[in-house]
Amino acid sequence: MQRADEITSLLKKEIEGFAQSSDFYESGVVASTGDGVAMVYGLSNVMSSELVSFSSGAMGITFSLLSDGVGCIILGDSDSVREGDVVKRTGNVARVPVGDALVGRIVDPLGNPLDDKGPLKTGSFMPIEAGVASVVDRMPVKQPLQTGIKAIDSMIPIGRGQRELIIGDRGTGKSTIAIDAILNQKDSGVFCVYVAIGQKASTISGIVDILNKKGAMEYTTVVFSGADDSSSLQYIAPYAGCAMAEEYLYSGRHALIVYDDLSKHAVAYRQLSLLLRRPPGREAYPGDVFYLHSRLLERACKLSEEKGGGSLTALPIVETQAGDISAYIPTNIISITDGQIFLETDLFNSGVKPAINTGLSVSRVGGSAQIKAMKSVSGRLRLDLAQYRELLAFSQFASDIDKSTKDQLVRGDKLVEMLKQNQHEPLNVVDQVVIIYAGTKGLLDNVEKASLKKFEKGLLSYVRNNYTVLVKEIASTQSLSEDSKKQLSIAIKAYKQMFGLPAGRQG
Known about the structure:
Layout: H1 2-21, E1 27-34, E2 37-41, E3 50-54, E4 59-66, E5 69-75, E6 86-93, E7 95-97, E8 106-107, E9 125-127, H2 150-155, E10 165-168, H3 174-183, E11 190-199, H4 201-213, E12 220-226, H5 231-250, E13 254-260, H6 262-275, H7 289-297, E14 311-319, H8 328-336, E15 339-343, H9 345-349, E16 362-363, H10 372-378, H11 381-395, H12 403-419, H13 429-440, H14 452-466, H15 468-477, H16 482-498
Parallel strand pairs: 8-12, 10-14, 10-15, 11-12, 11-13, 13-14
Antiparallel strand pairs: 1-2, 1-6, 2-5, 3-4, 3-6, 4-5, 7-9, 15-16
Helix pairs in contact: 5-6, 7-8, 10-13, 11-12, 12-13, 14-16
C-alpha cells in the first residue's frame, strides 16, 4: 500500500512538473514556407502582428490568423526557415530603435545600420504599429511648413501636422519635391525621415549624396528598403519610419516624413496577402488595403499644447499610370490625405518644373497654413493662372485678340515662368514673397521671358543687400503692411531701371 502511495505521489509530481513546463500553446511548427512567408501550426494563443522567433534565428510577424494555422511574414533571411522548424511566441510586437542617435543615419526597416558609421547607440525603442492620437489630443493645423517651392507655398500651402499627397506619373519630379521640402527644413527645428520603399540602391545613393552636400543629413534619417529586399521588409518600412518620426512628435518637437512611395508599398502588401491566400478584391488587392494606409497616415498630426505641441507632417508619394488619378490606390490615398499636389507629364515635358497642375492640386488646410505676407501677395495667383489657361486654349483658335486679353495672356505667361524653379534650390519665404508680389502686381510683365530667371536672382540679391530693414520686418512680423508694400514696389522699380527696363508695368 505504501509502495502504491509513493508511486501515486511521484506521478502527481511528474504531472505537475509537466504542466508547468508545457509550452504547447506558446510554440508551433512551420508547416510550409516560401517567398518570405511561412504557414505555422500550433500557435493557438498568438496575437495579430506579434513578433515570433524561428529556431533558425530568423524573426517573423504574424500576419493572418486562420482557423487551421497562422500565416507569418519572415523578416530578414527567409531562406534559413525550413519546414518542421520550431516557432516561438515572444509576447511582443515588432519594435525599432528611435531617438536622436538615428539622425544622420541610413537604416533598414528593422533599425539595422546600412551606413559605415557603426552601431546605433540608443536604448529607446517604439513599436512599429501604434495607435493614433485622439481627436481631443490634437489641434488644428495652423503653423506653416515651408517647402521652399514657390508654387506650393503660395497656392498649395502645407502646415505642420498635415498629410499632403504628392501624385503623378513616373519621372515627373515627385521625389524632387519631397527632397526639396527636406532641404528647406534646415535651421527650422524640423527633423526629417525619408522612407524609401522598393527603390533602387543607386537612386537612394544619389538622394543621400544630395542630402549630404546640402547639409540636410544633419537632421535627417533615411529608412531604406530596396527593390531587391523581401516584400516583408517593404511592407513594414513605412511603419518603422513613422515610429522613428513619432519619437519627435511625442517629445514636443516637429518632424517631416516622406513615404516614397506608397504604390510600391501597396504592391508588396498585395504580394504577401496573395501568398497567404487572403481573398483578392479590386485589382487583386485584399479588402483591407484602405486600412493599410489609413492607419499609417492618421498617425500624422499636430498635438495640442497640453500634449507637448509636437507635430508630424506626412508627404506620401503615389505613382499613377498615364495620369489616372481615379485608380484604386490613388483614390484611396486622396481620400485619406488633406490635399494633393498633382504633377503632370505634359507640363514636365514642356519645361514647366516643378510640373504642378494647379487646377487639380489642392490643400484642404488652405490659407490657415500660410504666413500673412504670403497670403496677401498670392491671393489672386491661382485665379490668374486659371484664367490664363482658359484664355490660352481659346486664343489658339482666335485670329483677332483685344488688348486686355493680350495683357492677360502676357501676365499669365510671366506668372508661369516666375513659378518655375530649379531642383534642389528652395527659396526662403521672404524671397518668395518678394518675387510673387512682383509677379501678381504686373511688375514682371515687361521683363523678357528669357531674362526672367536672371532678373529674379538679381532682384532678390538687390532687395536683401539694400533693403535689409524691410527684409527683417517681413521675416519677423510675417506680414506685409501697406508701407512695406510701397517700399517693395519702390525697390522692384529701382532694380528694373538698373536692369535697363521701364519702372512701370507694361500697358
